[in-house]
Design brief:
- Keywords: Hydrolase.
- InterPro entries: AB_hydrolase_fold, BD-FAE-like_dom, GDXG_lipolytic_enzyme.
- One of its GO terms (molecular function) is arylformamidase activity.
- The longest helix has 18 residues.
- The protein has a single domain, classed as 3-Layer(aba) Sandwich (Rossmann fold), CATH 3.40.50.1820.
- By secondary structure, it is an alpha/beta fold.
- α6 packs across α7 and α13 packs parallel to α15.
């Protein structure tokens, strides 16, 4: 039998696909779509433009970034810091940068602004749990910094170096580092906002839920055992025979929750979830229909079995926490209280309704469950938003970037406390402009024109 090798890995070894014409054809199409799609990928385009701007105005970028700051001495993982700065209103400032090199502090915050802490953005990238790097998102970090945020982009262990359990621990340690050290870089430790994309959204929400589970003592509570959580997640039938079968299967595969977090994560002011996967079992079925499940690291990173994947799916964990009160009311009430305390009050969920990489149903379901645990959820679903568009839109002045900035500002003000003393971030000015010769839905098409001195815009 002919075997076809693919780039995915299992336990560090290459995987082999058994020869099946339809299966191999689908995998081949998926690979070609990924490779060729890079030519039109908006993130790639923005990254190339950003690199060009860095070549022309390198010193302006270097002034406002701190690369490779180690946040975990055990794993050696690092993060990049993009410092807040006040943008110039002189639209041609960057053309004369060579004349202002001796006075580069003009590009930094003014004294009245410099003394005020800035809101902090922590961005978690995606990549199917087996790819990705903080360096790919420098344009995003610089753009947030240009508009008054301190932006932090950490690396985390991707598969096969780490499973989802290790990824969650890495993210928790990065957040603890931010809480402890961000004041040294002009950030407000009481105004930490999280943004995740795709697998990064999954890890973001799972990290927050594991923080709540750790505080609630779920790992040592018999009434909230992994088997019971799976049974109450709503992803199995209610028949006694099915429950018994699930118990026998669970006993055989020994399902486990991700271990308790090694650190305490700081309070989060808000989070933005972009095109995320929140039910890994459902998404595995979708990947199989597309014949990309062997290329994706999701199943292997999430501990292989259905039960373990459910225990690493935010939708299943939220559903289990809500319905577990039937079996153990006191334990469920304590867990729900911890979830409400840990999750930010303000959540923005954004997804494209025509996203072919991750179906929009994932975000619709998690939005409903977050509302059920008393989060104030803002849903933003657009037909023209492909899977990578939300991230690309955060790399330049766009209506979506403006929406995210306004959401974060509103969440920071609603949180109160030190948020009242945080310096406000710059508002993006967006002007619609007609593009001659093009029409959309019977009307003249528009393009976004932004007044900005950001060299990378």
């Amino acid at each position: 039998m002919v075997l076809v090798g693919v780039a995915a890995q299992r336990n560090g070894e290459p995987l082999l696909l058994r020869w099946h014409p339809l299966h191999v054809w689908h995998a081949f199409v998926a690979i070609c779509h990924t490779v060729l799609g890079t030519l039109w990928d908006p993130i790639a385009h923005r990254t190339v433009r950003h690199l060009g701007a860095r070549l022309r105005h390198g010193h302006l970028f270097r002034l406002h970034v701190v690369n490779n700051v180690q946040y975990d001495t055990v794993t050696g993982l690092c993060l990049d810091l993009y410092l807040a700065r006040r943008k110039h209103h002189h639209r041609h400032h960057h053309r004369h940068a060579r004349h202002t090199h001796a006075n580069d502090s003009a590009d930094a915050l003014e004294p009245t602004q410099r003394d005020r802490p800035r809101p902090v953005i922590v961005f978690l990238y995606g990549g199917a749990w087996n790819s990705g790097s903080k360096e790919l998102y420098a344009a995003l970090g610089h753009h947030f910094g240009h508009h008054g945020f301190v932006c932090v982009i950490p690396d985390y262990r991707i598969y096969p170096r780490g499973t989802v359990d290790e990824m969650v621990h890495d993210i928790a340690k990065a957040l603890a580092w931010v809480k402890e050290n961000i004041p040294d870089h002009g950030g407000d430790p009481d105004q930490i906002h999280l943004i995740g994309h795709s697998a990064g959204s999954h890890l973001l929400l799972l990290t927050l839920l594991m923080a709540a589970f750790t505080e609630a003592g779920v790992h040592s509570h018999p009434g909230l055992s992994p088997t019971n959580l799976v049974l109450h997640s709503g992803f199995t039938t209610d028949s006694e025979s099915s429950r018994s079968a699930m118990r026998r299967a669970s006993d055989r595969v020994a399902p486990t929750l991700p271990p308790p977090l090694p650190v305490t994560i700081p309070p989060i002011a808000s989070c933005v979830l972009l095109a995320g996967v929140y039910d890994t079992v459902q998404h595995l079925d979708y990947e199989r229909r597309r014949s990309v499940h062997e290329l994706s690291g999701m199943q292997r990173a999430n501990k292989e079995t259905k039960e373990n994947m459910l225990l690493r799916s935010p939708t299943a964990l939220l559903s289990a926490a809500i319905t577990a009160g039937v079996a153990d009311p006191s334990a469920s009430a304590n867990l729900l209280a911890q979830i409400a305390h840990t999750l930010p009050k303000h959540v923005l969920v954004a997804h494209g309704t025509n996203d072919t990489t991750v179906p929009v149903a994932q975000s619709m379901t998690v939005a409903d469950l977050l509302r059920a645990v008393k989060c104030d959820v803002h849903a933003h679903f657009r037909t023209d938003m492909a899977h990578t568009v939300p991230v690309a839109d955060l790399m330049h002045a766009s209506p979506f970037f403006n929406l995210v900035c306004e959401f974060v500002n509103d969440a920071g003000q609603a949180k109160g406390g030190s948020g009242e003393t945080s310096a406000p971030v710059d508002k993006v000015v967006v002007k619609p402009k007609r593009r001659a010769g093009q029409r959309a839905n019977g009307r003249a098409a528009t393009r976004v024109v932004v007044e900005s001195s950001d060299p990378s815009s």
